[in-house]
Amino acid sequence: MTELTIAMPKGRIFEEAYEMLLEAGFNLPEEVEMSRKLMIEIPEEKISFILAKPMDVPVYVEHGVADIGIAGKDVLLEQRRTVHELLDLKISECYIASAGLPNTTMSEIAPRIATKYPNIALKYYKGIGEQVEIIELNGSIELAPMIGLADRIVDIVSTGRTLKENGLVEYEHIAEVSSRLIANPVSYRMKSDRIQDLVTRLKKCVK
Ligand SMILES: Nc1ncnc2c1ncn2[C@@H]1O[C@H](COP(=O)(O)OP(=O)(O)OP(=O)(O)O)[C@@H](O)[C@H]1O
Ligand SMILES: O=P(O)(O)OC[C@H]1O[C@H](OP(=O)(O)OP(=O)(O)O)[C@H](O)[C@@H]1O
After folding, report:
1. pLDDT tens, 9-31?
2. Considering only CA atoms, which residue is closest to atom 21 of ligand 2?
3. Distance (Å) from CA 161 to ligand 2 centroid
4. When you count CB atoms within 10 A of the terminal residue's CB, does the N or C end of the chain come out lower?
5. What CATH number is attached to the domain comprising 142?
6. What angle do CA 12, 165, 110 make, to 5 degrees?
7. Is residue 183 domain-shared with residue 170, that is, in the same domain?
8. For the CA of 158, the nearest ligand
């Protein structure tokens, strides 16, 4: 059996993805003790997991240090890396939306958009004919309209609780997001049997 290296985000996606792998019949420990270890090896299955930041998963896969990755569609849309998207796992579902203070219109000249998704935001506003200035932030994006840093934010919405608790309303629904199984194009050819087996087994567990 050939070795398979899988890059996974450490946070939300990990638990759901791990659960799916267990359900797909992979011989993994039922519980993974979340330590500070960034690499988990499962010799019985010849699988190694690399635990990464969500935005870094496609980087590992594109460079081939991971054969397979699990990444949010938000990350894939933002980065456009050379990887194959093999399967929609339909986990960690959410969406990307624009939001702002209620009953406000955007400034007529170069409205400011705060986001951690500059490419998605630029493409969206270009598509609707708006020339915007992007203000890139790394988190707590919802602060930006409240403190006068931006007219709108472009961010992930899941339950809508963060928007609500910060007095913001949603304006435009931009893209649906769920986690995808991705592969390095060379690994996909060289390890096709193993990767195909993984896809077939996971496909049966997609809800
Ligand atoms: N409410 C949510 N907020 C953020 N990401 C979400 C949410 N719901 C689902 N996701 C998905 O989960 C991914 C984030 O995964 P994860 O939880 O591992 O990261 P995080 O811990 O939020 O990120 P970071 O390490 O950058 O703080 C996103 O790319 C997105 O696809
Ligand atoms: O609709 P909700 O269920 O409230 O979820 C959406 C929030 O969750 C994410 O933030 P995260 O918790 O990742 O923190 P961050 O501010 O560091 O990005 C996202 O950026 C929103 O702020």
Report:
1. 988 899 999 999 999 999 998 87
2. 156
3. 9
4. C
5. 3.40.190.10
6. 90
7. no
8. 2
Complex ipTM value = 0.94
For residue range 144-153, list pLDDT tens digits in order: 999 999 999 9
The answer to whether 83 and 184 are in contact (CB under 8 A) is yes
Name the pairing type of β-strands 68-72 and 4-9: parallel
Instruction: For residue 199, give its domain range.
Output: 4-92+178-203
Residue 14 sits in the same domain as residue 88: yes
CB 153 within 8 A of CB 109: no
Number of domains in the chain: 2
Name the closest-CA residue to atom 22, ligand 1.
11
Q: What share of the chain is helix, strand, coil (3-state, %, to 5)?
A: 35, 30, 40
Query: Is the beta carbon of 25 within 6 A of some atom in ligand 1?
Result: no
Whole-number Å distance between alpha carbons of 53 and 67: 17
Q: Answer yes or no: do 112 and 137 share one domain.
A: yes
